[in-house]
């Protein structure tokens, strides 16, 4: 489920871009300003709006730790803003003095790349704030740019319709000439490195969108010896008009896009399954972004508004991946003394040791907090507890206490289970919907993390048969994963 949690109406003209850091949301607009909000409660920071650009601000990008924001404008500059004070730290003048349409940081903060409407690319050394190299393509406007997770490559996209892969020497490693008919509008790498097929190959996922109304997912692999290969993996067609922006979630598993048809679509990225279509904006959706730390999406539009959405599925599995920022965001509004129910919005299998402690307290099992802490029992361990472990390992002598704890754990398992989930979609260890089912040597499928943890701590016996596992090899159960993904979509 995706719910709209707030609408920001501060810009006075088209919103062109939005981007999150761990704790902030920045939006930029044709009104020449950038606005910065705290993701705790989406209040605007005291120093916002940032004024300094002379014309339309097209794009903005946070440095990976969120200390700096780079913004670029038709005024031919990329401005570096300090995020603790809102002050301008540097103004980078684009070579050629043409409007700067896009800028992106490298994941290691060492480089910043900017692309302009005359087709020039500028690669900046961010440590010295100085121009390192210029390059680019002629007769086109650069509108899209993204650094790969390794920081050694980046991709540019232009109104000519091509996607090009560059290295830090600004040598073009690959050109995909007709990536999007009539023009590329945006591209973004997934933050993860994929496992390459050969030992020395690094492989990345790139999403791109364009005037052809398509969203595409590419695999880009790079081998120092043979160069760069780019392969189209999926074409997503959930929107009926040009797709203007796209963004991967922090775990690379979801992809959001905004379109001229005013809709926002959210896909499961590996299968390309359409999960949600959202409509709230009154005009073109020009911008979209996933938060790196919370299950939040921001979308910006030519209707001048920015919408913030919360993504959660029925079982809370998506939410479970986003603990830190999400916790901060949700607890901020809560007054002291109110019951902290932070853990209950996560899957129990994702609880930290502290979450387990607060659950014990809530259930009136305070006496167990210390022994659970001493034994490093997190959510996954909690769900795997049984009478034997309680007696022999945790030395809980009281029969009554053991019984109560076991009952509470059973209740917890029931609670976190979605009603009506087919049994085979639940992990036998955690009793929760599997995200990453793997087949163990006993032939049963388990949630990958759960069985790995089981194998590490439970003497390599099968959770189902109690017999020793012949090997610890785990093979992904793709069929099951797809079935679960389809089931989730239809619920
Ligand atoms: C990886 O690179 C090393 C050194 O460049 C080479 O000896 C080796 O054969 C390569 N392995 C593969 C799988 O390409
Ligand atoms: C994948 O999981 C399903 C459901 O548990 C099971 O029926 C199927 O046999 C598994 N696939 C393999 C290859 O074991
Ligand atoms: C672990 O398994 C081995 C053989 O599979 C057995 O000899 C040993 O006693 C087991 N240890 C525990 C703690 O169960």
Automatic annotation (TrEMBL):
WD repeats lie at residues 50-91, 100-134, 236-277, 278-314. Signal peptide: none annotated. It comes from the Eukaryota. SMART domains: SAM, Ubox, WD40. Residues 351-415 form the SAM domain. It holds the Pfam family U-box. Keywords: Repeat, WD repeat. This is WD repeat, SAM and U-box domain-containing protein 1.
